[in-house]
Amino acid sequence: MSIDPETLPEVLRKQRGLRYRQPLPPGTRFLSHGRIIRAYAEHLIDKGERPTLDKVRSLLEWLDRDYSLNADRISFALRRFFKNGRMDRFTNGHQVRIGKEVFATKREAARALGIAPQTVKNRIDSTDPKWAEWSET
Description:
The protein is mostly helical and 137 residues long. The protein is 43% helix and 7% strand.
């Protein structure tokens, strides 16, 4: 997955290649690892996209600042989004279609139906015609 700089907010585009404690171009503010991740997640949410670990890792690689791509570091930076419900904690889930309803993740579908996430997975993987309307998109 590659980043298109034209789609990024100006504040994130300016961060590319900046180094800590180095002279900054006028009008530029150095953002920390966590602030960059949160700004990008906010940008994706505003666009109606789900922030995923892969998307955040692509941004961090594009920034060329040797930031950690570790899932724990990214999740720690996004903990505020998880707490206030703006983002699902399990960010790499796939959409699930059950009949005409679409859920963001298997876990969300399971919560809505009152069943275990493993049951949702089993029904999606099943070849039984009874579960034909259950699919992963």
